[in-house]
Each structure stands twice: as structure tokens, then as C-alpha cells.
Amino acid sequence: MLGNYARSAEALAEQLKASGVQDKKVLQVIKDTPRHLFIDDVLKHKAYENTALPIGNGQTISQPFIVAKMTEILRQVGVKGKVLEIGTGSGYQSAVLAQVFEQVFSVERIKSLQWQAKRRLHQLDLYNVSMKHGDGWQGWQTKGPFSGIIVTAAAKSLPQALLEQLEDDGALLVPIGEEEQVLTLVVRKGKQFIEHKMAPVRFVPLIAGEISL
User: Global pTM?
Assistant: First the structure.
């Protein structure tokens, strides 16, 4: 599936390792995942650069370092089993999660992006991802609770519905803020939610509602 891109994918994984991603499983998945399949033809030459790229509808495919780091953080805090992803986008983060966790549930507000992502995941024989067209702020209550929740767009404040869908000891990873965004880890301990501010980041905004285009 990687074909001529194999060396580029390996170089990307090495670059992420040098940048601080240490989880061997995550690095292997980055090396094995054909990122060029998630990008329009005109940008395929940039597929294995460590940069975010436009995917249409005002959305982007996240920088590989951020994809790897967010996945690594969930593993570091003990997330296992069911993971909820808010913002399917191109499906690249979904593909990485699907190779690391048992089951992934992914919510996307833009219908056309959701369909494209589903097609790409099936191309890669990744069938442990369930997708829903809906409002990411609301999560996917009927499939919860989740061991981990990862949000790939920036929320103005902590989404309350997502906190409620965490299982005990579960972890939510979400960028918080507008002009200045901070990647925030929230761990549930019973009725308490313990926040850890991780790093400054840059994501498209998490917008309420859904689009049927």
C-alpha cells in the first residue's frame, strides 16, 4: 500500500522519534500508514512532510507529530478498549487509532468528509472504526462510556457532554482556546475531572451542528 512512499514514511517516523515521540507502537503505525491516501492528488508530494495540509471544507489533515503525540499520550495514561474520536476529517487519525486501540468510534459533522474517510479506512482493511455523522460537541452517548476521547478540533471550553461520556479513569484529550490554544488532558476520577495542560497547539475550531454536504 505504501509502494514508492515506503522510504518517505520511514523517514517521517524517524523524524517524529527525534522530535520526542517515543512509543514504539505508535511510531510503527505511523511508518505503516499510507498518509498519501488521505490527501488530494495535488498535495501527495507533501504527504510525508511533518505538516498539516488542507483537505477541503475548511478542514485540515493534522500534522503527523500531533497525530502521533496525541495517540501516545492516550496510551501513556492507560487508555485501552473503546476510544471516541471527535472530528473524523480525512480519516488519518482514525486509521492510526484503529491500529493502536481495540475499537474506535468517530464523529464528523461534514457528511462528505465522513464518507471519504470511511472509504479510505476500508481500503486499508480497517473495520474496527464505527462512524457517525453528527455534532462533535455531543459525542456519541449511546456507544459510551469510553476509555479515551480525542478531539481533533479546538473547543472554546471543555465540552461537558464529552466529560460525561468518559468511564472512570478515562482520559479526554482536547485543544482548548480560540486565538491561543492549549492541548489539555482531562482524567476522570469518579465525579472529579483533573486537568493537565500539555502544550500550545493550532487546530481548526470545533463547531457545533452538522453539515449534510
Answer: 0.94
The residue with cell 466529560 is 163
Q: Biggest alpha carbon distance in the chain?
A: 50
What is the band of 212 on the pLDDT scale with cuts at 50, 70, 90?
Answer: low
Q: What pLDDT, in 10s, does the model give residues 66-107? A: 999 999 999 999 999 999 999 999 999 999 999 999 999 999
Helix H or strand E encompassing 139: none
CB atoms within 10 A of CB 42: 7
- Alpha-carbon 168 to chain mean position: 21
Beta bridge partners of 132: 107
The residues assigned a catalytic role are 62
Please name which of 39, 88, 122, 62 lies closest in space to residue 211, comparing C-alpha atoms: 88
Q: Work out the number of other CB atoms within 10 angstroms of the CB of residue 154.
A: 22
Torsion angle defined by CA atoms of residues 54, 97, 109 and 132, in that order, rounded to the nearest 10 degrees: 150
